Amino acid sequence: MSIVETLSNLLQQTAFFNLTWGNYLMMLVSFVFLYLGIAKGFEPLLMVPIAFGMLLVNIYPDIMLDPKDSMNDTGGLLWYFFHLDEWTILPSLIFMGVGAQTDFSPLIANPISFLLGAAAQFGIYAAYFMAIFMGFNGAAAAAISIIGGADGPTSIFLCNKLGQTSLLGPIAVAAYSYMSLVPIIQPPIMRALTTEEERKCKMGQLRPVSKLERILFPIIVTVVVCLLLPTTAPLVGMLMLGNLFKESGVVKQLTETASNALMYIVVIMLGTSVGASTSAEAFLNLDTLKIVALGLIAFAFGTAAGVVLGKVMYYASGKKINPLIGSAGVSAVPMAARVSQKVGAESDPTNFLLMHAMGPNVAGVIGTAVAAGTFMAVYGVK
């Protein structure tokens, strides 16, 4: 073989001759995501692996190769990661880690937070009917609408349970993107719907929560929610198990593993596989644009609904509840609660809302899982 032929063969093996304009466009999108994650610090633990998975699959599509399409029955690396998403293993493990990291005491101390968490789910149901109006079938509309909860694992979980795996890439990327952009999307809505006086409202100190209450809470929530909606058991059950690890005080090693090492391993696998589901062929179409738009609408509606109910409670309580904590009813824990604190502090630097906002924030996680369970019940998923 001549040197020219050798060089020609080597050149043909590079990716340059196999990529489409869509692949290059998606590579540019991945660079934007990397910039947002690294330079701007927008949820980097998720944004960086998602962006890198997006980059890899658009350079080397076979990294997501199905073993059935392989000559040696071996799939691509990220195909195996992705199947752990499809089997709902990774989303459930993420919930266990979140439970082990999160203090549920603000919700226990102020149960009215459940209402604010429920109000923030309004965006999910609004997006559901809008998605149907835009031409999606019922199951697809349900899978898309859950983006409004700003809960990536639940979005992935429901999408797979409803058999909408073809939409998983756009749905997951939209959900995680909006989670990362909470500090940008929420504040303008919060300011537009509240007055300076309302934002300055200082809330009283939360009552102390006993250890017995903290131990009983995850057990009771699991029993009640899973009896009503058994299909939520993988998410709610793992969330509450992780919290029980934390609050029981007798399994310190399990708490540390679930909230640190295991959590971060799962984030790497879930993030890269979600990013790798966004090949140009699967991502660049009209449905993707609709999904991204519906997700933003759902998220905005959910934020607004939480704030509006917060305003109602502000006046009903004699101006003792700050409406800003209602925006934390979306499931982005603890970022949404931090945004409530930040916007409140802009009006009064001495105002401390973070712990109060954590109540609706935790309630929102449970509420989004319940919304997913409701959709599964509607569409006969067991």
Describe this structure in a few short sentences.
The chain is an all-alpha fold and 382 residues long.
What is the count of helical runs? 20
Low-confidence stretches: none
| Largest beta-sheet characterization | none
Order of helices and strands: HHHHHHHHHHHHHHHHHHHH
In helices, the fraction of residues equals over 70%
Strand element count: 0
Question: What does the radius of gyration come to?
Answer: 22 Å
Structural class per helix/strand content?
mainly alpha
Give the averaged pLDDT, no decimals: 91
Question: What oligomeric state best describes the polypeptide chains here?
Answer: single chain
Label the overall shape.
globular
What portion of the residues fall into strands of 2 or more residues?
under 5%
Termini, distance in Å?
61 Å
Write the layout of secondary structure elements.
Elements (H helix, E strand, L loop, with lengths): L2 H11 L7 H18 L5 H16 L17 H10 L2 H13 L3 H5 L3 H7 L2 H12 L4 H8 L6 H10 L6 H13 L1 H12 L2 H4 L11 H18 L4 H16 L3 H25 L3 H4 L2 H31 L18 H13 L6 H25 L4
Helix pairs in contact: 2-3, 3-11, 3-16, 4-16, 5-10, 5-15, 5-16, 7-18, 7-20, 8-9, 8-18, 9-10, 10-11, 10-20, 11-18, 12-18, 12-19, 14-15, 15-16, 19-20
Task: Explain what you see.
The protein is mainly α and 382 residues long. It has 20 helices and no strands. The radius of gyration is 22 Å and the shape is globular. The model has no long low-confidence stretch (mean pLDDT 91).
Characteristics of this structure?
about 375 residues, mainly alpha, 20 helices, about 70% helix
